[in-house]
Design brief:
alpha+beta, 4-stranded antiparallel β-sheet, 26% strand
Amino acid sequence: MVSVMTRISDKVRCKRHGFSLIEVMIALAILAFGILAMTVSQIEALKQGGAGRHTTDAASVARTYLEQVQRLPYATIDGWKDTGWLVPAWAGARASYDTAIANPSGDIAIEHSYAVQFRVTTVAVTSCILDVEMRVTWPEAGFTANKTVTLATRRYNWGGASC
């Protein structure tokens, strides 16, 4: 009877020793790989979040310029038709638009700069309608080519003789 109890206590004692060095190293390697994967995905999420914010800003700039074009006289816009991409030259328009951020120190810093161009083309069906496209371009960190947002609207010649 004593020998059976000795064997049982020896088995219990063996189980209390814990993990082997190899088991701990494998567990740490798996943990390190998981943390590395989470870090890489977090960095990519931050990069894509910034790119998304810049795309939203560019679309907002294009929309603002299109609203300015809607206020211009039709004859002014008609003078630009079929001339290719142009830099905005009407009162209050700029060739580039900068977004600024306030630093904790109170200084203002330029976060991003956007180049603005527009193009006016005639609609083939009638000469009373013009397509106006606004293109905003900017360099994005981590991307090889410049990113671009293009928005468009149409202008109708209200009160035109043949319209």
